[in-house]
Amino acid sequence: MQGGGPALPLTMAQEPIWLEQLRHPDRVNAGFFFATIRGSVADEDVAEACAAVCRRHPELRGTVEERDQRYWFRINDVDDLFEFERASLPCPAGEEKDVARVWYLARRPLNWDLTSRGPIRFVLLDHGRDRRTLVVAVHHMAFDGRSKFVFARQLAQALSRLREHGGLAGAEWEPAAPLAGFEEPDPAALAAATDYWRSCDLPSYPSLVLPRPDGAPPAPGTAATPRFELPETAFRKLRAVTAEVGTTFFAGLLAATAAQLARYGNDRLALCIPADTSTEATRDRIAMQVNMVPCAIVLEPVATFRDLVAAAGQAVSTIDRFRRVPFHLLMRELRRGYGVDVGPGIFDRFGVSYPRVAADLGEVPGLRLDWEFFAPNSSQSFQNTLQLRTTPDGVFGRLDYTTSVFDAETAEDFAEDWCWTLEQALRDPNARVVPRFWGSTAAVAARMPEAASAVAPVPEAGAGTMVVPVERFLPTEDRLEHVKAGGRIVLVLDHERVGQVAWGEWQPDPGTSDAALPLPHLAGEWRPAVVARDGRELPRRTPGLLVLRPPGGGKEVPTGFRARIDGKGRLCFLGPADRAGDFGGRLLEGGQVERRIAALPGVRDVAVVPGEGAANPTPGVLVVPADTGASGSDPDGVRAWRRRVLRVWPPEAPRPTHVALADALPLDPSGAVNLPRVRAICRTGRPSTDSRPASPGTALPTEGRR
What we know:
Layout: E1 7-9, H1 14-23, E2 30-38, H2 43-56, E3 62-67, E4 70-75, H3 78-81, E5 84-88, H4 96-107, E6 120-128, E7 131-139, H5 147-165, H6 187-198, E8 222-224, E9 228-230, H7 232-245, H8 249-262, E10 268-276, E11 290-298, H9 305-322, H10 327-338, H11 344-347, E12 350-353, E13 368-372, E14 384-391, E15 394-402, H12 408-427, H13 442-445, E16 465-469, H14 477-484, E17 488-495, E18 499-505, E19 517-519, E20 521-522, E21 527-531, E22 544-549, E23 557-565, E24 571-576, E25 580-583, E26 586-589, H15 590-598, E27 603-609, E28 620-625, H16 635-648, E29 658-661, H17 675-684
Parallel strand pairs: 5-6, 12-14, 16-17, 28-29
Antiparallel strand pairs: 1-4, 2-7, 2-13, 3-4, 6-7, 8-15, 9-15, 10-11, 14-15, 17-18, 18-20, 19-24, 21-22, 22-23, 23-24, 25-26, 27-28
Helix pairs in contact: 2-5, 6-10, 7-8, 8-9, 8-12
């Protein structure tokens, strides 16, 4: 849109949101809130009050335009952009909020073109006599979380003025100048924040371990759990503990979040906090006056909950110190310093939102406005955001999540476990936060019945049945065709000391080739368990190291594999532990990535190896095409395979720099893949002279891919 009023360069808060919108046009970085209005009021007065607030705040009348290779925010007249719709939505009294929420979520925009439409829209839903709900949809380009309280207060003022005086007049309703420069960075603060995070050795930062859904994750999207409540007794105890430690109540909530994440084996983590950057002069202005501020929390092995509250208090002081350092500039400086982008995997996984909730929003004579601000966003800054709010008597919250990470059941379990973990920690704040073995809560376990644990013999390889060691299995085309033709593929987990442990039959499912491989049948009396790096048993659905426990108790035996126990108590195989690797908060689950690549047409074999430290952090991929004529010395062929590999590469894993081709994988005399030689081939692009091909032919227990 051209014309209109003045144009200003995008602020440092607006620019990253706009760039994210350009990168992902299918996502809308927006939210909504609403107010049920009870009493007699003309629709025209509601519309005029909304327009008055937009007239007062230039940021609500802006559109984006590009010129001179820069993006600008053009301020327009209200009449050019004002969107106010009406709709009939009858419902019984008392159900207005619920039906309004469902109505909007089913109709919210899937795209929001800020080059031609403004960042705020209104819908007035008519429920019946003297009952309406005003739904306000806002793009975060011009509206942060604190702004909705400013809007509510000023809408009430405008409605009151219209009812009492029949019009709006006065200096307070005149348009203000657009805010600009309020987030200008302090060079010294930016340097201090960059030095702080570089001192944390970000390349070695572990990925955040979270429970995983039992099935394959659905398509990317956003969702939210139902609202949950923290019991009043826990609220009072947490108030007391934070006061004794000498820190804020928010630090106690951060400690609870860190304790919950510690249950999954995380002892060093970064949480991102949306921090208000408004000043006294801008407190009553609607605009993007918020910044994302990461903070680090380290959980010592013997830390008590009181220790963790103190550590969270230090993290809060870091937030206060760096709250005005623009997040995207911090990411830029870290990228320059390390030469690689180390930020996304560390800082985009988990956020905690804890805004100040306004209590006095004003009254309108003859009307009752019942506001609902706790509505899910259309898009998120993080994969998971714990939305927390306090009232005088308690805490309530919700987990907003991306559906590519959690499904509804996993997310609701997390929210329920968060409350349970905090209650357990508050029973004795001087006890260890995470005991060595801390299983799932009784409430969650009740929904996860154990799978049948009777020992079942592994089927013998016979006509139509292929028995394959699970660590050697890839879902290649020939194996898929074998099953389509009526054959069976039985996956077996063996251990050199224990013998056969578990088995399961492979059931091909298009789109889930990278999922964990279920082994629901025990083949012996040893019981599998999944533990963290420190040997602590992990809750169900959480990936970790697989160990075996002998019958009748005794010392557990490590396996060298990664796995998880799903919600039904089944062992699910992930892959060899030497194929997994962390770099800058991103996890390479090599076994699962290999299965993704192996499902591509024309793949006979593949090996994915993690990088080696900061000097060589990126993984390598060695593909063995089914076409033996493919040559690793053909640049066009290698480039074509690289494009195919990147199309199926998981976005949460560090991307490979090297993709190479070979006639066979290099193997050790034992038949295992020689990882150093795979790395050398990937790095140089030249096949090893002493590569030994995998055994050809049928997939029997002796088949040697690794």
